[in-house]
Structures are given as structure tokens and as C-alpha cells.
Amino acid sequence: MKLSNTLIAVFLMAVVTYMPRVLPIAVFKKKLKSRFLRSFLFYVPYAVLGAMTFPGILYSTGNIYSSAIGMGAALILAYFEQGLMKVAIGAILTVYISVTLLK
Amino acid sequence: MKSLNVPTHRQTTAVKKRGSADFFHGLRQGIPIALGYIPVSFTFGLMAVNGGIPVWTAILISLSNLTSAGQFAGTNLIIANASLLEITLTTFVVNIRYMLMSLSLSQKVAPQMAFLKRCIMAFGITDETFAIASLEKGEITFGYFLGLVTCPYWGWALGTALGALTSSVLPRTIQSSMGIALYAMFIALVVPAAKKSRAAFVVAITAIFISSLFHWAPYFARTSGGWSIIFATIIASAVGAFFYPRGDDEIE
Fold first, then answer.
1. Which of A96, B66, B80, B160 can bridge B62 by disulfide, Cβ–Cβ 3.0-4.6 Å?
2. Which of the residues A3, A16, A46, A66 would you substitute to probe the B interface, choosing the one with the greatest number of B C-beta atoms within 10 Å?
3. CA nearest A27 in B: which residue?
4. Same structural domain for residues A48 and A80?
């Protein structure tokens, strides 16, 4: 792709990334009355995180087995509340070691 | 007495002090997000440059998009020489989930927060800043969110730059291993919450079940990744709201 086209693509990507972020919070100023909708929005983070993680994680390293092993490591580290950084690095190292061993 | 409505000097400093306390509180909470972003954006930088995108353009993408899944998808399409329409549509679909997050945050910010402040803070909504801010007790202030976003924003750009500049130095196996970083970070956010709350656990498991269905089940499996996340989020959150409705005091 030509650089000028790439830059147009980047600009369009930035616009369609910002729009869904800004519209609801800028337009919607009232507190919702409905208990169902309020509860629904309360649960959105957990649902988004679950849906984004699985099964996407299995295809994240190009090797489904080492990805699964890395996921196991991340689950254990996260269960013991090791924080974002440790969980991320721990999973990377586990994948790296398992790829090296599986070869 | 008109003067009663004018804040005294002491009151304005009190407000300012609270604002900066909020900012630093957010800043501290943003540090682990930023650290978690570095391996992920590093991977992005690697991928972009390996695909023939100039280093500065890769950094520009991170500075202007500030999103994981969306810019990965869009950049892959740029590399594949896809049409502008396809790039824009795919990125948009991957990012529609932000509407749900933004709507969710609209219930957590003070109703009187100014329009401009809302527009500024919206730029910093990511899966991680959203998750952290949502778990915050009480209302979200502008200062807090600005602080929360600062380190992740620069961490995202820094990681991209490092990845873009070292792409040829790093062995392939390490490069591909780093692909798991983003997902590991999601796990680090959701597991501790699911451990403490049965409702959060059920919602996350439901979402995982539905996104797996969209991925593997016949007929469903043609759904694109972005739509699958949106459907799974809507259904799982509805299940949570139905079976575990929150009391008014719990939501504040």
C-alpha cells in the first residue's frame, strides 16, 4: 500500500475507534432508571473480558498447544492476583519455554 | 446575596487539591496497565514493521488509535493491501464494544461533567482502563481518569517504538510467544474479580461459552471476531442482569 493511502487508512481507523468511545458518554448524561439496564452495564466489563480472551487466546502465538499452556500459566498467576505485568510476562515465558520444549 | 454562590479561595483550592489527588490516584493505578501494555504494543510494533510499515507510522497508529484488537486488525489489513472500506469497517466492528463500555462509564461519571471533558476522557477508554475504572468505588472524576490513562497511553507508544525498532534483532520464537501478552492481561483483570463475585464469574463464563459457540459451532462459526465479542457481551451481561440484579446502592 502507498504511504499516502496507509495514512488515510490510519486516519479512518482512528475515527472509527474514537466514535464508539465518545458518542455514548458525551450524549448520555442521565443516570438510567431501569435496574435491569444498570445491572447490565455493570456486568459489561466481565463479559467483554471473557469474550475477548477465549477462544482468541488459543490463536495468539501461532501454536495452539503452547498457547493453551500459556493460558494455564496466566490463569494460575491471575488466581493468585499477581498483577497485570507479572501475569503477562509469566504467560510469555511459559509459551516460550513450551515452544522450545515441544520442538 | 450573590457572593454566596461564588466559591471562596479556600474552596477552589480544595477542589483543585481533590482534582490533583484524584489524578495521582489514577496515575498509580495506570502504572500496571502501562507495564502490561509494553509487551503487547511491542508485539504490535514488530508486526507492523515486519509487514513493511515504517517505524514512525507504527508509532503514529498507536498514538492515534490507542486500541489493541482494533489496530492489530486494521494494520493487518493495511499490510494485506485491503481496501479502505474493508479496513474501516473491520476496525469499526472490532471497536463497537467500546460503545457498551462508554455507556457503562456514562453511569459512573458525575452527571454534571462538562461535554469537553467527556470528549477528552473518551479517547482513553480501553478494555483495561475501563475495567480498572469500573471497579473503582464511587463516581469517576475527570482528574482520576486522566491520571489513569496517562501511563498506559505513553506505555503503548513506547512499546510500539521498541518493538518497531528491534524487529530484526528478536528471534522469531520470542516474537510469537509475545502474542499471548494481551490475553494474559485480560485474564489478570477478570480472574481476581470472578474469584470474589459469583455473578462476575457466571457472566464471564457465559461470555466465553457464547464466543466459543460463535467460533466452533456450525452455522455460527462465520461470525466475525468483532461481532462475536459484541453478541457475547450483550447476552452474557443480560444473563448477569437477569439472574443477579444489582441493588441501587451496589451500583453506585
1. B160
2. A46
3. B115
4. yes
CB contact under 8 A, B192 and A91: no
**CA torsion through residues B171, B177, B179, B181, sign:** negative
pLDDT for B93-131, tens place per residue? 888 889 989 999 998 998 889 999 999 999 999 988 998
Q: Is the dihedral of CA B237, B239, B241, B245 positive or negative?
A: negative
Alpha carbon distance A19, A46 (integer Å): 22
A46 and A95 co-located in one domain: yes
Per the structure, the count of domains in chain A is 2
**A66 and chain B: CB distance < 8 Å anywhere?**
yes
Give me the residues of B, 3-42, that contact A with CB < 8 A. 32-33, 35-36, 39-40
Model ipTM value: 0.87
Which set of grid coordinates corresponds to residue A28? Answer: 448520555
Q: Do residue A65 and residue A77 come from a single domain? A: yes
